[in-house]
Amino acid sequence: MNKIKQYLHIINDSIGQLKIGENPGNLYDPINYIMSLGGKRIRPMLTLLSYELFCDGDITTAINPSLAIESFHNFTLMHDDLMDKAPLRRGKPTVHEKWDSNTAILSGDVMLVRAYDLFLGLNPVIIPGIIRKFNDCAAQVCEGQQIDMNYEKLEKVSEEEYLEMIKLKTAVLLGFSLELGALLGGADDDSAEKMKECGINIGMGFQLKDDLLDVYADNLKFGKLIGGDIIANKKTYLLIKARELARGSLKKDLENWISLKEFNPTEKVEAITSIYNRLGIIKITSEKIREYFDKGFDSFAKVNIPGSRKKILYDYFEDMIGREK
């Protein structure tokens, strides 16, 4: 995985050199703050690895477009954290907590605008097509977020509805990250589409893993409030399956905890986690995660590139699957 470390260094170094703006400081400081919080830089990494898969050479052409994806992703995080009233992001205070809500809105807006700047160095012939695909993806992410907020007002959400929501909110951006790299690397339309399908399915598994980690992760490793979804009654895959499977006193207990307006957060997390354990929700969710990862690998296998060239990206997918944070 030495190449992964090399590319991660390139991504972080390039982010550090971005000239986003300086004044007023309370507009630009939050952008530098959230971009500096790190993380695995999964989306730009996928773009670079996909680019290299089709173009065995210098990755310079793909760096700025990959940063456009990272800028857009962090814009969505800044706004999502505000909408969710989340206190932590990657173990640190969220922007609206460290500054204020209005700053989080405006700084996020600038991040979206600057994302377009990072596409401008591409060959002018391909820019319109790339921007159209990016816009379609970005709109889907916003649709997913709106649907997620709509679900907060509904009593129940079906498994099918939830999976469609996370596809839009999370998975399509991973799909576009791989598609973008492939197109920049000269892939034909069929190969680029298969890379997109691969990313969407990997992204579905990745979000379901995130749902699982919200309940079962090591707090020090995860960097977010453990059990936050339970406390907020978020309609995650785990809760949807638990409500579907619970019977008798177990169902009564689950619905009671969901209905409470005042409660001890620690007690609620422990009680609902215990219900999940009794229903085998870890196993059920893990099987669904594996199903999506298998679909992703199947699409990846159909890309007409020698297997030896796919190894680095394949290993990176496996690392994503095994993540604990």
- Per the CATH scheme, the topology name is Farnesyl Diphosphate Synthase
Radius of gyration, whole Å: 20 Å
CA-CA gap between termini:
18 Å
Number of strands: 2
Low-pLDDT regions? none
- Can you give the mean pLDDT? 93
List SSEs in N-to-C order. HHHHEEHHHHHHHHHHHH
User: So, CATH architecture?
Assistant: Orthogonal Bundle
Percent in helix = over 70%
Number of domains: 1
Can you put this structure into words, describing what you see?
The chain has a single domain (2-205, 293-321), classed as Farnesyl Diphosphate Synthase (Orthogonal Bundle). 75% of the residues lie in helices and 1% in strands. It has helices at residues 2-16, 25-36, 42-54, 60-84, 95-98, 101-117, 127-151, 159-184, 189-216, 219-222, 228-231, 237-245, 248-259, 265-279, 281-301, 307-321; strands at residues 88-89, 92-93. Helix 3 packs across helix 8 (159-184), helix 7 (127-151) runs antiparallel to helix 8 and helix 12 crosses helix 15. The chain is globular and about 60 Å long.
